[in-house]
Amino acid sequence: MSHTMQRSGPEGHNLPFGRLVPAGEPILCVAATSAGPITLIRASGEVDMSSAHLLVDMVALVAARPAPQQVALDMSEVTFFGAHGISALLRARHLVTCAGGVLTLPAVSPTVRYILGVTGVGDLLGIQAPPIRREGLVPPVAADDTAPRTPCRPVPGRSGDGPPLARHA
User: Which residues contact 128 (CB under 8 A, 6 or more apart)?
Assistant: First the structure.
């Protein structure tokens, strides 16, 4: 069994990073091949609000087969992965699980790995996120020992549900 689904970009459709998709060029291509109870689904391109449904549609097609399936979703060629992609993966996992199968993600691009790691969905799907290196995010700031220090004190009248707010004097 072999199936392919794709969503082509409209003429002049703007994509992230200023790239234009010519008419007919696929935004996302999803292809499936099966060998017995194992189905490999490969996604390449951008998984966004206009294309995420293709992943779900392909998984639904595979999950509708009578025997329990092992569905391996290869996302190593995904270049953009948005919130709709997360929803699509969760929906795909639900479809396969309800059909008595197992969904795995044997290969994911760095983009997908990062998004799944930051959102915590990677743990649910069995994807290990690389640690976030904080040293590259913000340049270090040198301490200024000559600046006067202003002590913080509690805001008058604040009590009850937590520690008092502080403000500079």
Answer: 117, 122
Q: Which residues face 6 on adjacent strands?
A: 29
Lookup: tokens for 83? 């919130």
* Look-up of token digits 């194992």: 38
Residue type (1 letter), 59 = V
Assigned token pair, 79:
């270049």
Half-sphere exposure of 80 (CA within 13 A, CB side): 17
SS (H, E, C) the chain: CEEEEEEECCCCEECHHHCEECCCCEEEEEEEEEECCEEEEEEEEEECCCCHHHHHHHHHHHHCCCCCCEEEEEEEEEEEECHHHHHHHHHHHHHHHHCCCEEEEEEECHHHHHHHHHHCHHHHHCCCCCCCCHHHCCCCCCCCCCCCCCCEEECCCCCCCCCCCEEEC
pLDDT digit string (tens) for 4-49?
A: 655 555 444 444 444 555 566 779 999 999 988 899 999 999 999 9
What gap in Å lies between CA 156 and CA 32, rounded to an integer? Answer: 65
Rounded to an integer, what distance in angstroms lies between the CA atom of residue 72 and that of residue 140?
42
What backbone torsions phi and psi does residue 32 show, to the nearest 5 degrees?
Answer: -125, 140
